[in-house]
Amino acid sequence: MTTLTTLATAIASGTVRVIDLTHTLDPDFPVMILPPEFGQCARFRMEEVSAYDERGPAWKWHNLSMSEHTGTHFDAPSHWISGRDIPNGAVDEIDVKNFIGPVCVIDCSQGAKSDDDFELTVSIIQEWEADHGQIPKDAWVLMRTDWSHKRGAEYLNMREDGAHSPGPTPEAIQFLIDQRDIRGFGTETVGTDAGQGSHYSPPYPAHFYLHGAGKFGLQCLNNLDQLPPVGAILMAAPLKVKNGTGSPLRVLALIEETP
Ligand code: MN
User: Fold this and answer.
1) Which of 42, 74, 166, 244 has its CA 20 to 30 A from that of 12?
2) How close is the Cα of 75 to the center of ligand 1, in Å?
3) Measured over all CA atoms, what is the biggest interatomic distance in the chain, rounded to whole angstroms?
């Protein structure tokens, strides 16, 4: 059998399982809230065009509207000022082979349970590597926090001084880029940066360093607790929007069931 028929057989039989890492697009799903002087990200909206009625007797369909950065979504290099001059930095220009690849999952769920501002640090990454081996070049790295289990106001966790949610330190992101040459970084929270990410230097270091290096982001991921630390394959292909800086998408992971 060829590699692809082997894969198809394994998916059909369940020895390779497909995990959905996506939240449902829903008008109630929270979006990032910026300080009021800035433009705002739109929530998901769905408007009925017809539903087997006089507006269209045999068909049902909807018009959708949303931000590029609504729901489970992909960040392209052109999203950030540091990545504005990266060649092929918009979603329609990225080489599609980047949309399928290996993924490492760093479990920070225990720390995030007791500290809303939990930081992924270089030493946590190094401890993870001591257990699971070095993060391979060109892999996705996902920060598991179980934040995807939160609903409503708890998800953004806004306080007087802004949002409080976990994220990486500037040094951790630099380590992943400079020392491990990752493909991208993903989180369960509304951004790749911590809720208080504006207070780092540079502000929003994950966005700044990742996109400046031509790397990608994934946010509002779901079901990371179903992934192994290593060995899964991530499939994350954004919509092909001309000059798009990001896009909602269906993120899937393939995992191999150990017999
Ligand atoms: Mn985004």
Assistant:
1) 74
2) 5
3) 64
| Lookup: tokens for 196 | 């208080």
C-alpha 138 chain-centroid distance: 16
Alpha helices (runs of H) in 38-184, residue ranges in sequence order? 109-114, 122-132, 153-156, 170-174
Q: How far is the CA of 51 from the centre of ligand 1 (A)?
A: 33
State the catalytic residue, choosing from 73, 79, 207, 211.
79
Triad 179, 183, 185: Cα angle to 5°: 90
For residue 253, report the distance from its CA to the centre of ligand 1, in Å: 20
pLDDT tens by residue, 197-252: 999 999 999 999 999 999 999 999 999 999 999 999 999 999 999 999 999 999 99
Active site residue 207: no
Residue 212 near residue 85, CB atoms below 8 Å:
no
